[in-house]
């Protein structure tokens, strides 16, 4: 399946990627993170235990399922206000 | 009722002047968040705020709906700055109106707590001495 990967804040800076369309063979967001960690190098930033994620711009858990065409975002804890 | 994300300077006085709750409102509580010139003992030269276009705006709308469901609010104004900010500039302005002060205080406090932890916004400080850029973590 093809998904749109979005990265924000220090993850975006560490990887130099804001948005990337990628082809993956996974069923959950946790699987997607594992696949990305497998790329090595700076992708280790996604091993952050406080990592947050969103599916189609809605906050979700790593256990959430993924479907073709989804927009999946990874970002650190939020610090607005 | 209004929420917004902006790259423009936020002027709390202007927003309070434009804030027009109904005559049945007996209390208006507002909060203004500013860029501090120091953080964790380090002098700060500027602040950058990043957001998730689309999701951030929608979550601000949902936050307003959530507050209105919990307190009898007559009016709500939430505006959050993004992009590059200088020390002393306004990061966020929140105002709520209600018949009585207790609800207004509680709702304003709730909105700020949620803004800090549940809305996709991220702060990065630039330190004055080293020019090092540091992403903040929740305290």
TrEMBL record, chain A:
InterPro entries cross-referenced by the UniProt entry: Beta-grasp_dom_sf, Mopterin_synth/thiamin_S_b, ThiS/MoaD-like
Name of the protein in question: MoaD/ThiS family protein
Automatic annotation (TrEMBL), chain B:
SUPFAM superfamilies: Molybdopterin synthase subunit MoaE (SSF54690)
Keyword vocabulary terms for this entry: Molybdenum cofactor biosynthesis
Domain of life, per lineage: Bacteria
Pathway: Cofactor biosynthesis; molybdopterin biosynthesis
Pfam family, one: MoaE
InterPro entries found in the cross-reference section: MoaE_sf, Mopterin_biosynth_MoaE
Catalytic reaction(s) noted: 2 [molybdopterin-synthase sulfur-carrier protein]-C-terminal-Gly-aminoethanethioate + cyclic pyranopterin phosphate + H2O = molybdopterin + 2 [molybdopterin-synthase sulfur-carrier protein]-C-terminal Gly-Gly + 2 H(+)
E.C. number: 2.8.1.12
Family: Belongs to the MoaE family.
Quaternary context: Heterotetramer of 2 MoaD subunits and 2 MoaE subunits. Also stable as homodimer. The enzyme changes between these two forms during catalysis.
Protein name: Molybdopterin synthase catalytic subunit
Organism annotation: Paraperlucidibaca wandonensis
Lineage: Bacteria, Pseudomonadati, Pseudomonadota, Gammaproteobacteria, Moraxellales
